[in-house]
Sequence to fold (236 residues):
Amino acid sequence: MNSQLLINRPHTTVILAMSADGKISDEWRSPARFGSEQDKLHLEQQVAQMDGVLFGAGTLNAYQTTIRITDPELLETRKQQGKPPQPVQIVVSSSGEINPNFRFFQQPVPHWLLTTTRGQELWHKTAGFEKIIMADDNFNQINWSLAFEQFQELGLKRLGILGGGQLISTLLKQNLIDEFWLTICPLILAGKKSPTPADGDGFLSSVAPRLQLLEVKTVGQEVFLHYQVSYTILQE
Fold:
């Protein structure tokens, strides 16, 4: 177990497909549908192991839906483990500005919102989310330590992180990512503005999170990489 893991937060795994040049979408931030059927199956298998999945409002805006477990064997396994059919789906939005007409809200999954006081006020009288979690830092931004403590208290021991790059970068800076599952797909997207698995402000190489390769699988033209994250501890 990594030294940065705390008992009061869930174990987290980023699950993403990306192009061979490290892009998770094109410059127009279109829905990333370049993964194969095998990649889709892999995503569903990974999500089926989670108590919840976390994704940013930008990711929801792009897809307008979320991943749902449909494979009968995966559903039966969750049932035998005493888990509900679907992991909770947690949308992250500090502002709470999410289109209530997205098909996401008609999908038969638990809909949760992680937001601030400001975001909660927008959804106070609007149907859509069965649970709203407030984790406010008093500047209308998410307090991630508080958010993850609440996740743990709500029984979420394993969280899948589905994007986007800004959310993942933020969580890396908070030492809140434990593993990556990256699918390398055989295409080049290019583009200076195309999002990557970790956007936002970067790391100096001396303090950048390191990855330990746990597993490599090649299926067809795609490569599946499983990493554990190690964080550099600065010495006083």
Observations:
- The CA atoms of residues 9 and 148 lie 5 Å apart.
